[in-house]
Amino acid sequence: MGQSIRNELIRVLIASDATFLSGEEISRKVGVSRAAIWKHIEELRQEGYEIEARPRHGYRLVYRPDRVAPEEIYPHLQTVAFGREIRYLVQTDSTQIVAHQWAREGAPEGAIVIAEEQHQGRGRMGRVWHSPPQTGIWMSVILRPPIPLSHAPHLTLLASVAVRRALAKLTELPVKIKWPNDLLINGKKVCGILTELRGEQDQIHYVIVGMGINVNAQVADWPDWLKEVGTSLRHELGRPIHRASLLAEILAELEQSYQGYLERGFAPIREEWQQMAGILGEQITARTSQGSYTGIAEQLNEHGALLLRTEQGVVPVYSAEIEWQ
Ligand code: BTN
Q1: Residue 139 beta carbon below 6 angstroms from any ligand 1 atom
Q2: Does 157 lie in the same domain as 89?
Q3: Both 155 and 244 in a single domain?
Q4: What is the DSSP pairing of strand 112-118 with strand 86-92?
Q5: Which of 138, 214, 243, 298 is most exposed by smallest CB count within 10 Å?
Q6: CATH (domain of 308)
Q7: 190 lines ligand 1 (CB under 6 A)
Q8: Structural domain tally of the chain?
């Protein structure tokens, strides 16, 4: 109950768009006594919200701390299911671990795990994902798609298309997709996606789509190895971004793409992916566990594999590190 009053109070304060609201108005809108409103306002202040109180005017929200807590996300959320159930952690080893556990316990489709900081963020190929506090979106989304196991690679491509759309909407930055799951700005990585699943035979139990987005990191604070390959939205834009609004936009795009995929199949996602990909028509080298292939990246096939035209013919690449000039 306390949590929902608090969510509603924050929603009302945000909706008033920094103009004053009387205690009476707030209490009517939230549906609790003025004394209860006062108590919640005090709590919010202790957590870093600045709420100005002026006699005969009421209250006004002056500053919101940059957190990805549920009460910051809900006022922006336009989805039906995605992000409606949230596990929020100030710090954790990896949101993937928490999401696997929750999915095994029966988390509903669209539930998300989100953290301010990860100590052992997981990247692809066993790499570490640098996840310092309050600088990014470190999120795992739980899906239960009624699709065969062999179609699971579609979900990674779908997620990169959805995140790219959300970024394009909010920033107008030139975000490109690099197969299979990276988003780049001016050749540097701003987002990585890690898809993990549990299933058997040809049946999927659940899928965890993990997303790491470098939002407000000051690149100058990063270790040297990361500066060379990565960037953040703040660095590219020259201003910070409100993470909870971005997160809500990503969930909206993700839900829409996912529903579209379940209804219409992979073809529209593939089309959009191909338009946004930075590598089609380029000469690339794909390092796979079976060896390296160099050739021209032609297109995605219906399974989501990248078709590479090499001197030996066309090779479908399912999982690899990609290099190109
Ligand atoms: C990549 O290597 O490109 C994928 C990086 C995925 C990182 C995200 S951050 C949220 C989620 N939790 C993790 O431990 N990893 C993913």
Answers
A1: yes
A2: yes
A3: yes
A4: parallel
A5: 298
A6: 2.30.30.100
A7: no
A8: 3
Cα separation of 215 and 243, whole Å? 7
Is the CB–ligand 1 distance for residue 92 below 6 Å?
no
Most informative mutation of 87, 96, 184 for ligand 1 (most atoms within 8 A of CB): 96
CA nearest ligand 1 atom 16, residue: 210
What are the residues whose beta carbons fall under 8 Å from the beta carbon of 89, sequence distance 6 or more?
95, 98, 113, 114, 115, 116
- How far does residue 70's CA lie from ligand 1's centre (Å)? 20
Residue that terminates a domain, selected from 276, 292, 307: 276
Q: Is 138 in the pocket of ligand 1 (CB under 6 A)?
A: yes
Residue 152 sits in the same domain as residue 8: no
Tens digit of pLDDT at every position of the chain (325 positions)? 567 888 899 989 988 988 999 999 999 999 999 999 999 999 999 988 999 999 999 999 999 888 999 989 998 999 999 999 999 999 999 999 999 999 999 999 999 999 999 999 999 988 999 999 999 999 999 999 999 998 999 999 999 999 999 999 999 899 999 887 899 999 999 999 999 999 988 899 999 999 999 999 999 999 999 999 999 999 999 999 999 999 999 999 999 999 999 999 999 999 999 888 878 898 999 988 888 999 999 999 998 899 999 999 999 998 888 887 5
| Residue 261, both tokens | 């995929």
Residue type, 100: H
Burial class (CB in 10 A: 0-12, 13-18, 19+), 228: exposed
| Domain of residue 20, residue span | 2-63
Same domain, 166 and 84: yes
**For residue 174, which amino acid is it?**
P
**DSSP, res 128:** B
ipTM summary value: 0.99
